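Good day; I would like, with your permission, to put a structural problem before you. A protein sequence and the structure tokens that stand for its backbone fold form the material at issue. The record follows directly beneath this note:
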Amino acid sequence: MAQVATANQGVWSGGKSPFKVEYGKLMMWYFLMSDAFTFGAFLISYGTIRFSTNSWPDPNHVFRSFPIIGEMHIPLAFVSIMTFILIMSSVTMVLAVGAGHEMNRKEVLKWLGWTIVGGIAFLSCQAWEWTHLYHEGAWWGHNPFLNIDGTQASTNFTNFFFTITGFHGFHVLSGVVINIIMFIMTWRGVFDRRGHYLMIEKAGLYWHFVDLVWVFVFTCFYLF
């Protein structure tokens, strides 16, 4: 019995910091876990409808446009660039967090700035894609694209696409705003006065989550 009590004290470390994780970081993990359930519900709903339908629009046909150039024979070229931008922004966020651990404010500002640029670039690409699809007649309740077998498609494709990519885009926008706030706080020396850059690490957790979710969104909508 005494051994169990000792083990519990070691895990909870006095009950103030479960598993010796900083409180704010633990709450961020809780938030991300609950958000993952929301995204999971959306994607499971999409998958259920998608694979219970005999035919579906071909993503290679729907997503083959490119800014200025127009229609391209290379499928998914534009969304591949979008994905690359978002993944690279995750790399720069890792570098910003690493610089924070070293208390290097100059490097944090540099890499956090590039992360913000990447997020804005991704949102700009998504805005162009949405605008292009809208001009083609695609929107909630409207689907101009035929199924891969030539039959008329339902609006499930566009309804799910705009809902899920819009929900993800809102998360990216929120992440950009958070990173801008972190950038300003870093620039003003707030974290140097605190003696740590834990807030950058928490913002990094959120940003990596957003990037990870995009991998699943990309797989569901653009590859199948």
About this structure: Residues 38-223 form a domain with the Four Helix Bundle (Hemerythrin (Met), subunit A) fold (CATH 1.20.120.80). The helical segments are 2-12, 23-51, 59-62, 77-101, 105-135, 156-187, 190-194, 198-223.
